[in-house]
Write a structure and sequence with these properties.
Elements: H1 2-8, H2 18-39, H3 46-76, H4 81-103, H5 110-133, H6 138-157, H7 160-168, H8 170-186, H9 189-197, H10 212-240
């Protein structure tokens, strides 16, 4: 009931509040994506339903957090860092799970899934410490977070995940490659937002007047909905065959 009431409450946003605008658009886009994924579940073979379900959960969790972040921003004009990282701690590991789910057809083991989940948690926890807890050492925390990120990139582009994708071939390999590009290019938006909001050797970014919330909001919408659409397309192609 509380959640439903929150959805109905409309925070007042100024016409030039582009941060608030991206929060609102992001919440609605991801809620619409969730409805789309959930309602399409029964149109696929059973082996792909879990992947589609996870895609819907990713966008639904993000949408709920975005409703709260939108209201927090409207009330305080401050970046809702805590809510954002709670969102990421739930959704980013689920995005890593998607790699395991599509590679199961090639014999992927749970150890791959847990490795990617562990690395994603390290990436996020250290990022939160640098952005919200120990800002004086933001560059160091960002470095640790970046290392975890690049290990994930290596694993999916060149490691065990890549070999499994090649063994699966066809539409699975194509989907895996697309998801890899999302991680390499799409997820790179987050370090940019991190550097725009913290001080370090990269402080020159401040002169560009980048708003990290707009960067994060665009990145979330593109990556989370995009991930789900890649899985959806894979499920469609495989079901047709």
């Amino acid at each position: 009931m509380i959640l439903f009431t929150n959805f109905l409450s409309v925070a007042k946003l100024a016409t030039d509040d582009y941060v608030g605008f991206t929060f609102f658009v992001g919440s609605m886009a991801m809620m619409a994506a969730s409805a789309f994924f959930f309602l399409s579940l029964n149109t696929f073979d059973k082996k792909w339903r879990t992947s589609i379900l996870v895609s819907g959960l990713i966008t639904f969790i993000a949408a709920v957090h975005y409703f709260y972040m939108r209201d927090y921003w409207a009330a305080n004009a401050e970046s809702p860092t805590f809510f954002r990282y709670v969102d990421w701690l739930l959704t980013v590991p689920l995005m890593c799970v998607e790699f395991f789910l599509i590679l199961k057809v090639a014999g992927a083991k749970k150890s791959l899934m847990w490795r990617l989940i562990f690395l994603s948690i390290i990436m996020l926890v250290t990022g939160y410490f640098g952005e919200a807890v120990d800002k004086d050492n933001a560059a160091i925390w960002g470095l640790v977070s970046g290392i975890a990120y690049f290990v994930i990139v290596y694993d999916i582009w060149f490691g065990k995940a890549k070999k499994l994708a090649e063994a699966a071939g066809g539409s699975v390999l194509a989907a895996h490659k697309t998801l890899c590009w999302f991680v390499l290019v799409g997820w790179a938006i987050y370090p940019l937002g991190y550097m725009a909001g913290t001080d370090g050797w990269y402080s020159a970014l401040h002169s560009l007047n980048l708003d990290m919330d707009i960067i994060y909001n665009i990145g979330d919408a593109v990556n989370k909905i995009g991930f789900g659409l890649v899985i959806y397309n894979l499920a469609i192609q495989s079901s047709e065959k």
